[in-house]
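For practice. Any example?
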Amino acid sequence: MRRSDEFRRFDFTKATLPGNDKIEREASPELTMAITDLIEEIEALKRPDRDVDVKIALLFGWQRKVEYAGSGIPSRNVIWYWQGEASARLPHFTGSIDAALQLLDTVSPRFTGGFSWIMHESDKIATTSINDYPHCHAATPALALCAAALKIKQSQSVEQL
């Protein structure tokens, strides 16, 4: 089996917090995509996307617990966990530069770099340069930072194979 074939098989359905089998990482075909596919999806986005935020979070180790309450029409409450700590909301990785920088910090705690963007008539292009990794391009600085974090995570995963 080639490394790339081995790398493309992600299974996000097996994650649980200790002592709680109801914590889940969404099981769907979209979330079993390779990091490369997620990078391409981010680079193709024109604006922030909460579904992509969920994919990023699950890939980076966030976990979620879904609780249902009430009679009749049940209400659904989602609690996100990062490193065992509960969080009421998932960060807007694709829409917030601050959240994207925090994501980048998880894979490269001592990163150096920057980002820039230019606006044409109907197009925006943002570029990031982080450490010695290849430049990343996307529609917004937050998206470009997310792509950079994923590329760093991808290179770290390949090194461990």
